[in-house]
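User: Reviewer 2 asked us to show a designed sequence for the structure in our supplementary figure. I'm pasting the structure tokens here. Could you produce the per-position amino acids so we can include them in the response letter?
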């Protein structure tokens, strides 16, 4: 399970730390943008981990369905279709357009693989029904945890974006300043 450690050095520890949103009105616009961007990167990484977990949940459910329906084709034979079914379905939840790539994709894959090792998911057809249920429960519990942290990070982003918008609305920040900053000029 992902845990937030107050005072920890990881990005999620900072973004969800108690002081991250303190005194936003006192921070410079560039610091606000840095914090927003840091939170956005964490949200991207959590979204990636969540997708990995969803794929594993889909694989376990597909094996359970195969068994209950007496299907002959293995999960491996149907893997592309299993994973595509989820990818083309309607979007749900609080997804946002991601312009960033996951920064810790390898770390998240290793985390998901460790869950696989713990549940023997490398060959779902060899698992007992009980082990399939246990694997599904473990992935689902982890997905709930990741989704919860993702929503918290999105809330942080929303709060910072609201502060930035307030500054533009009040005239204490300007689009010209933003363009200068993007061109490498002073802020």
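Assistant: Here is a per-position design you can include in the supplement:
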């Amino acid at each position: 399970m992902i845990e937030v450690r107050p005072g920890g050095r990881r990005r999620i520890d900072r973004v969800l730390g108690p002081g991250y949103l303190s005194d936003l009105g006192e921070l410079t616009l560039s610091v606000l943008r840095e914090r927003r961007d840091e939170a956005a990167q964490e949200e991207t990484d959590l979204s990636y981990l969540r997708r990995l977990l969803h794929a594993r949940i889909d694989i376990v459910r597909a094996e359970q369905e195969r068994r209950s329906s007496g299907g002959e084709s293995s999960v491996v034979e149907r893997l592309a279709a299993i994973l595509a079914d989820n990818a083309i379905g309607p979007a749900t939840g609080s997804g946002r357009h991601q312009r960033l790539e996951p920064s810790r994709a390898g770390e998240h894959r290793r985390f998901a693989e460790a869950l696989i090792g713990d549940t023997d998911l490398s060959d779902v057809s060899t698992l007992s029904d009980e082990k399939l249920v246990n694997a599904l429960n473990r992935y689902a519990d982890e997905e709930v945890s990741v989704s919860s942290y993702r929503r918290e990070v999105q809330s942080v982003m929303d709060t910072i974006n609201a502060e930035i918008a307030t500054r533009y609305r009040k005239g204490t920040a300007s689009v010209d300043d933003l363009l200068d900053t993007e061109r490498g000029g002073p802020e």
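For the response letter, you might also mention the following. The two ends are 40 Å apart (CA to CA). The helical segments are 11-15, 29-69, 75-87, 105-119, 129-170, 175-182.
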